[in-house]
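Q: Predict the assembly, please.
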Amino acid sequence: MIDSRPVSFVQALRLMAWLAVRRQINRWQSLQLGRRKTDPSKRTGTAPKSTGRSIYSVFLLGILLFNGFNLASQGLGRLGALANNVHASANKIAISAYTRQKLVETEAALKQVRQLPDAEERQKYIGLWDRYLDQILQNEVSRESLSEDEEAAKLQRMHDAFNQQGSEAFSVEFGSHLYSGGDTWPRSGAPALTFQNTLGLLVLTFVPMFVCLWLGMNNKDLGQVEWSFEWLYGFPVSTRALLASRLFVYSVFNPPVWMFIFPFLIMVYFTAGCGFAAIPLGLAATLYLSGLAGSATMLLEVLLRKFLSLSQLKNLQALFTVLGTIFLLLYLASLFSQPLEAFLVGQAKELPASFTWNPLSFYLLLGAPHSNPAEAMTVGALMAVIAFGTAAVALFFAEFFIREGLLKSSGPYQGIRRQKTATQSAGWLSGVAANEMILLRRDRNLLVQVLVSPLIVVAYYFLVNSSMISSATGNFHHAATMAFVIGSYVLMSSAMPVLTRENKTLWQLMTFPRELSSILVEKTQVWAVFALLYAGTILLVLAHFNHHLHPSALLDAFLALYGVGLYAFIAAGIGIMGTNALETEVRARFRPEMVYLYMILVAMYAVTIYTPSVWSKFAQVVLSTLLAYALWQKVKDVSPYLLDPAEKPARALSLADGMMAALAFFVLQGLLGFFFSQSTSMPLAMQVVLTYVIAGFLVFVLCLAIFSSQKIPHVWQSVGLSRAPGTVMPIGKAVVIGLAYGGAAALGAMIYLHVVDLVPQWHIWKQDAEMSALLRRADNPLWICGLAVIAAPLFEEFIFRGLVFQGLRRSTGPFWAVLASAALFAMVHPPFSVIPVFGLGIATALSFQRSGFLLAPILTHATYNACVIFLNH
Amino acid sequence: MKIELRGVLKAYRSMRALDYVSLEIEPGQIISVLGVNGAGKTTLLRCLAGIAAPDKGEILFDGQEFRRDRLDLRSRIYIMPDFPFLFWEHSIVRNIAMILRLYQADDAGAERRVLELLREFDLLPLALRPVHSLSRGQLYKAGLTALIAADREVWLLDEPFASGMDPHGIEAFKRHAREATGRGRTILYTTQILDIAERFSDRVCVIHKGEIRAFDPMEKLRAEAQDKDNVLEEMFRQLREGGA
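A: Predicted assembly structure:
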């Protein structure tokens, strides 16, 4: 039975629109916090819906809306004040009401003083009042953020004005409140017009912004071979209904519109005193604007798809993304940046009243304070006419252009391909690196993210905060930090998604006769070079403009560049660990919280560029390097089994385990120490020892419990606590080696102490260290001896040799494992003892390497501690 | 529904995808459309579905001139593209429901029909999964479910046998297609697999450089051919030699 009655225009429109609404809701909800638990045995995912996620998205929406209102409110408040001031102080200097009051007083006082009969007394009082005047004006000037030269010039101008005209030369400025109120829009006269024109100028960019953002970022399939519209086009639905449903979606579902522009327009009508009517008025204005933008977007999409090839489309999409971002940032900057605000108001002052009557701004008059109901009605009617008229025209032309069907000569189904060989054109690069460069050249969105958006971000910050330029060129600390942060920012979009990007190509990489991790390393290296180029260029430019370059700048530059290179691997490592390679949906492949983790690490490193202490810089470098190594050790373990996690063998001991154990050990000590100091009245020494022993014991037990629950094979052997079955424990050998190495390390420490005594600066250091040690030891030396000779060797050797050294040893040779574990070990000791403890770290690691039994390093450590304590007494 | 093409020309710039094609297709047949890559097979299907409009000539359905705005005629035709796009974020069931609604085929029995088809295509356990999580074969079977459930008078399929379907799915599709021709449905599909075309079509339509080179029942072609076992292969060899 066939019903050949076609679906009506309205039905089709409703259906298509509803589908699109659902699509947007799904998309919004799929912004997920955590990774979905996927069963590796099942290929298919589950529908991305859950209550938790909905609550999260509502919460996020609330924050974004609040942010939009907050920004708009502050920006409008400042613009309102500026519009008033630009007129009030046409030939007067605008100052605060307080300063003006003081000036009037000073003027009166000076007048009286000048009439004093006694010349000497007169001079004295005039001098006093002059100094008072200086002070007032200085305070006034310093309210603005001016450079020293500007400050001096303005001060001079104020002095001159006061000497010539007295307080008459000054006018009270309109206070700019932190937030705008119902009276921010000036009610009458020139300021009202200026404010109106300022807003008129500001909103001009809205429609192009909407169009660019939609075509650039939101429309993912515009540049795809399979265009969703082509598929819909086969259904028995009128072309007009299809186009109209698209127009509707483009008009209503542009997220930035609702996050930024809707709150802004509500605030605009609110400042005009519309009260709660501002909400419907703002909604009407938003819909009007986004309707215009939707019509333009729909028509443009059809035209572009008809006349441009896919590669041209992709380029254009990238351009739209850049333009849209610039428009959006310009809008935000005009609510933030004082120079930009002043520029806008200055321009608006010169514009005629008729300016606002352009189709992109006139809706402001819907609720302007001076417009009467009749005018508002006219504006409203006109808005409806223009919106529907534009939509009708756009629909007409779109339909006209696809009257021949949706095909074009270079369509995807015609089997015509451009003759182009891409394999040879990568120049000096080859293999994986060349492939990455081809990707960069082909994928315009990636190109924009990696090459253009860092520049936009820098420009934006300079625009918003103009003092950043002087600080970056004046202080090389700032310059180095900036170079590092921008390099890390580049890495976020380039190195971090190094695996996430390989969506449908991962299986292909897996088939190559190479380890996947080595391919990933090579890819990461390419991005590291890119980020280094960026950071290096910034450093050079900023150093060129810096006139007080200090030799310490070299250290800063080294830290910044080393950091960028290192963070390429940290970013990629975090990105790889946070990628679910089995997930086919692009957005769900990556855990977004990994980005925050990365940003926290970047911030921690950036701070160390500032810190004056060389020791903490060294510590940060060692920690970050080890972190990168630990991450990549994991990557190497995981990468062969990305596509079939069920095949993954039981994991082995890794550096990450050691670092986690060390961290847990220190955190536990801190927590327990706090607990004991708050809740007991034990002697301090006992507290210290108990804290240490409990923390060490807990870490020891927890580690072994976790390792055996994760079925790590031969745990006891790995940490050096037992031998392979059938072999004999080399106890005698371990004792000999342990004592010998311990003696050697202690000898080294003695030499160090003598050398320190010879250098006066270091001597003070030593005294500091001894003082704090004495304080702790004073009440009961026996406890401390027990701690140093028994407990510390046991637990520290388990963590630093059993876990860290062995974790390193699994994937690196003895030389680096010894050095790195000793460096980490030294780092967790006070600065004074870093050098001897580093020696001890080397001795213990060597004795462990030689004997293969944890008893040896424990004895080494105990011998060393015993010798040092004994000799110090 | 009887389909007629009269002097249909469709050109992309200088290339003629359909070069004054004339055809008459009686209802109740399965027709395989054959031709080398770029011969114009897909263009033929797209013109019949109203996705592309002919530059010259006309297409008639039951003697009525067909244009894109003839929604009544278009709702009697169903085209399955090479890659059924579907709404990526929605489940199979929602996609099928939407398509049936567009064809006004969501009558009282539709739910039962769809359920049976889903079971037949082994899609029932996946019915609530979003489409993006399906494999290509599953995706195509989901598209076929909608097509068979909608049961229009003309079925147009682009490369159904290169769609990643499993043998069970192919068999079910063939069975449904056969049953449908019994109800007077016309089925046109493109393919490159000559073995399938030989056994699974009432008529073979061979397009070469936009022209119809053959539009005959298999029996006739077989009677004329010298190599009885490889009728179509011989024909393509001749086309290649003659047309080069």
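Strands of chain B lie at 3-12, 15-25, 30-34, 56-61, 64-65, 77-80, 154-157, 186-190, 203-208, 211-217. Chain B touches chain A through 56 residues (CB under 8 Å).
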